[in-house]
Amino acid sequence: MDLSQECPDKLLTPAKSVKKIKNGSRVFIGTGCGEPQCLIKAMVEDRTIQDIVIYQMLSSTLAQYINDSNFLSRFSIKLFFISVLMRQSAFEGKIDYIPVYLSQIPRIFETQEIGLDVAMIQISPPDEHGYCSLGISVDITLSGMKNAEIVIAQVNPQMPRTWGDSVVHIDELDYIVEYEEPLLESRSVLKNQTIVERIAHYVNMLVDDGSTLQIGFGHLPDAVVPYLSEKKDLGLHTQVITDGLLPLFKQKVITNRKKNYIQDRVVASLCMGSKALYDYVDNNPMFYFKSSEFVNDPNVIAKNDNFISISSALEVDLTGQACTDSKGYLFYSGIGDQVDFIRGSALSKGGFSIIIIPSTAQDGKVSRIVPHLSEGAGVATTRGDIDIIVTEYGIAEMRRKSIYQRVIELAQIAHPKFRKGLIEEAKKRHYIFPDQLPPTTQDLIFLDSYTYSLKLPNGKNVEFRPLFPSDEFESRHFYYSLQETSIYYRFFNKRKVFSREMLQRQWAEVDYQRNMTLIGLMQLGKRKQIVAIGSYAEIGEYEAEVAFLVKEDLHGMGIATFLLQSLESIARENNYKKFIATTLAENKKMLNVFQRQYPDAKLIRSGGGEVDVEMDFA
């Protein structure tokens, strides 16, 4: 469509268009990489424009002017999210920050809680019917445009056309500026690739094929998602699409086939990345762009089964409170979309949320897992909303856990050099018992190779992994769930009490080499329960004593044999050549397990009805 023929009265130069902005106006500017650069520059460079309040979510172009005293005397900037380029200005008090959930911003414009006089947006050229597209910036831009008194639009041929609610007709525009320029690009820069890879390793363990994902704002989530390349049929319902997702689109990892809500489509609100990403979403019907009011609505998010939210934080305290928008009193980013998606994932059938965070900051000098949030830090995600936290040292499961359990979970994924200090601080605050032992200071990433899975004859799966300090409560429940006979066969006495002291000793004595304990877990609703425990402990230079316990209703399904085989594999790695077991002669089931696995095992009867079983690995 030729705009000079269709609506010549609306066509203006950049300089003339901004003359329509009256002094004292409240001006909305489109978001992030979709912002209208030429209009912003024209407005700032027109020195007759005075006393303007600017509302924007992510701001880039204004960063070029923010340190100019003349600019600050003419413009007041209010941001819903502080971009990297505006961060220093926020620290210096040159801009104002509005802490609000993204899902609520469109309604705030609609109800005139924030009144808008002018909206400056960027759109694609119109089609033959006069319809343009908001392209890569629908988010709060759609509402900002619809609720402003005057709409000034930059028509840029480089803006992609996107599907969904991005459609704008030229009749909705008051003034139009035709101006072609490259769109802003956003590139992620990360300092430590090793940390990214280790965090991605744990995230990969949590994400199942067919899950629907949300990827939060920030460099770390963007850097982690390419490592999900081995997954199948992932879906996407997210506020922002970034370059980290591009490989997953091209490799057909994200297919959206398994989504049960808006199937086969990526639902998003915003796109920030490279030209390659913009070219990929251009006129691509796989992408369905909606406003933040829809995309971030927890009730809408919850319609996606098996929904997983992946976002980041600046620090997390030992009770599970997360700060995302400030470093102490210094505002750093924003509340953004995290809470919306965390609450939506909690309502989703099979859904949960993951917060990923490096264990340290300032080149390893400070821990990001802290006894309490920094003075002035805001609680973006409450301890009641938290599900899972991941650092490069492991996974902490927080949902429905007590403060005591949370401390142990978080201490064991903190950087090893801070673990003991965190436990001591927790004792001072009476979060944990005074005799609590700290987690090992070992880096336990090597234990990830000691994870196994067994499909039972009944079709259910048992997952096996090493015992951790955070398993204290579950192991207690396991022991108390056993029948008296099972306890007697294992401990050779009718033990009635499994004290904290006993259970602490059990995991505290595990060094994962000279002794090892594996636990078997089965899913029970949203919780995994221990159904089996197997251990070996060194008794000589090349031999170790082995023992097992399996829940009675799972006897005869191969669990004990599987545990024995797995423990032998680990023992071999640590240069052991033989297992020794002591069992009661009447415990025929256990003797059969040993003899099936080791046909040449030596059975030596001792006093008291006990049998020593010697099992050479050779």
Task: Provide a brief overview of the structure.
The protein has 618 residues and is of the alpha/beta class. The chain has 21 helices and 35 strands. The termini are far apart.
Could you outline the blueprint of secondary structure elements for this entry?
Elements: H1 3-6, H2 14-18, E1 26-29, H3 37-45, E2 52-56, H4 69-74, E3 75-79, H5 87-91, E4 96-97, H6 105-110, E5 116-123, E6 131-133, H7 141-146, E7 148-155, E8 163-164, E9 167-169, E10 175-178, H8 193-206, E11 212-215, H9 219-224, E12 235-236, E13 240-241, H10 246-250, E14 266-268, E15 270-271, H11 275-281, E16 287-289, H12 292-295, H13 298-301, E17 307-312, E18 315-317, E19 322-323, E20 326-327, E21 330-331, H14 338-347, E22 352-356, E23 360-361, E24 366-367, E25 369-370, E26 388-391, E27 394-397, H15 403-411, H16 416-428, E28 452-455, E29 461-466, H17 472-481, H18 484-491, H19 500-508, E30 515-524, E31 527-538, E32 543-550, H20 559-573, E33 578-584, H21 588-597, E34 602-605, E35 610-616
Parallel strand pairs: 1-2, 1-5, 2-3, 3-4, 5-7, 7-10, 8-16, 11-12, 11-17, 13-15, 14-16, 17-22, 18-25, 22-26, 32-33
Antiparallel strand pairs: 6-9, 18-19, 20-21, 23-24, 26-27, 28-29, 29-30, 30-31, 31-32, 33-35, 34-35
Helix pairs in contact: 20-21
Describe this structure in words.
The protein has three domains: 3-178, Glutaconate Coenzyme A-transferase; 193-428, Glutaconate Coenzyme A-transferase, CATH 3.40.1080.20; 454-616, 3-Layer(aba) Sandwich (Aminopeptidase), CATH 3.40.630.30. Helices cover 27% and strands 25% of the residues. The strands form nine sheets. An eight-stranded mixed sheet has the order 28-29-30-31-32-33-35-34, with helices on both faces. It has a seven-stranded parallel sheet with strand order 4-3-2-1-5-7-10. Strands 12-11-17-22-26-27 form a six-stranded mixed sheet, sandwiched between helices. Helix 5 links the parallel strand 3 (75-79) and strand 4 (96-97). Helix 20 (559-573) crosses helix 21 (588-597).
